[in-house]
Design goal:
Layout (H helix, E strand, L loop, with lengths): L12 H31 L17 E2 L6 E6 L23 H10 L5 E5 L20 H22 L4 E7 L1 H14 L10 E7 L14 E3 L8 H4 L4 E2 L2 E2 L15 E4 L19 H11 L20 H15 L4 E2 L1
Parallel strand pairs: 1-10, 2-3, 2-4, 4-5, 5-9, 6-9
Antiparallel strand pairs: 7-8
Helix pairs in contact: 2-7, 3-4
């Protein structure tokens, strides 16, 4: 008699091939999941800026080296970099905000106003690009810009407690400027509320399109849509966190905050709920494309009133008017 073979029967034929194929697919699926998790972590999370709360009380005078007014200018996506000179920015000579900050700086002596252009990475990586485009994610870029804005304002306030502030930003810079203004309006910002003369946001990605308490005042004919961060509220994927509307709006700064949005600019005039977060990849691609659409790049020629005043001209004149009427602190 022949001895019986022990152990499990050997798989062979089509069944064995299918078993091996299933194992390969399982391994590939696990590797894909691991890659996505690593990609998601590497892309970064949005980190709200952290800064010291302004101490109570102020002196009657401040140092003679302090400007009467500090203007904070925050460029948009691809219009700055982390190493740019905040007083002589050259990262992008075509930066839209130079059409605002340049005329303001030329209109006043340095003792009256100091113009600080926030240097930050100012990028928006396409998370589904293959191969990766090598840019910083929106979360990383926005977090750096917000923190640098808060740090600059906190440092100025510590040195110059009587200096007042004018804040303006474009695109990603408008989101950052609006977020900082919102925190100041809620008494959680780097400077006291009464020191902020005004805020203007050009193409704000968190624009609500609403009027009323807490909302910014709209300049020019208001388009019907909302900011992309509101249209895509809840989307959180690979370095892109859409944070929705600002809780409480601009609080105490609402009456001093202005918003400008050109019709059909998807950054600030996205159709409500049209960018569906449940349809992730097409929505993300549309959002990335929106940052480079022609309308978004034309605020230097977009007219906001019947006199033909462009968005950048309006913002520069607005800032100049605030600076002209700003207090003249005593210097020691």
């Amino acid at each position: 008699m022949s001895a019986r073979r022990s152990g499990r029967p050997r798989r062979s034929g089509p069944a064995g091939c299918l078993w091996n194929l299933a194992k390969v697919i399982a391994v590939i699926a696990i590797l894909v999941v691991i890659a996505i998790v690593i990609w998601y972590i590497a892309a970064g999370r949005y980190r709200p800026p952290v800064g010291p709360k302004p101490p109570p009380g102020r002196p009657d005078t401040q140092s003679a080296s302090c400007p009467d007014v500090q203007m904070i200018s925050i460029p948009g996506t691809w219009e700055s970099n982390s190493g740019d000179d905040p007083h002589r920015p050259t990262a992008n000579p075509a930066s839209l905000m130079l059409n605002v900050s340049g005329p303001v700086a030329q209109s006043f002596p340095e003792q009256r106003v100091d113009v600080y252009t926030v240097p930050y990475v100012a990028q928006f990586s396409n998370p589904v690009a293959l191969p990766p485009d090598g840019q910083a994610s929106y979360n990383v870029s926005r977090s750096e810009g917000a923190q640098r804005t808060v740090d600059a304002m906190a440092a100025r306030y510590k040195q110059c407690p009587l200096t007042t502030y004018v804040i303006a930003g474009f695109s990603q810079g408008a989101v950052i400027a609006g977020d900082v203004a919102s925190s100041i309006g809620a008494n959680k910002g780097p400077v006291p509320q009464d020191l902020v003369l005004g805020v203007t946001l050009i193409a704000d990605g968190r624009r609500t399109g609403e009027d009323g308490p807490g909302q910014a005042r709209q300049v020019g004919p208001p388009p019907p849509g909302v900011g992309a961060e509101i249209a895509l509220g809840g989307l959180d994927v690979m370095g892109i966190t859409m944070t929705g509307p600002r809780p409480g709006g601009f609080g105490a700064l609402a009456e001093r905050t202005y918003t400008i949005c050109a019709p059909s600019d998807l950054i600030c005039d996205a159709p409500r709920q049209a960018l569906n977060p449940l349809n992730m990849i097409p929505s993300v691609l549309r959002l990335v494309q929106a940052a480079g659409n022609p309308v978004h790049a034309m605020y230097n020629s977009y007219r906001v009133d019947e006199n033909g005043t462009t968005a950048t001209q309006w913002t520069a004149k607005w800032a100049e008017g605030l600076i002209e009427g700003a207090p003249h602190p005593k210097h020691s």
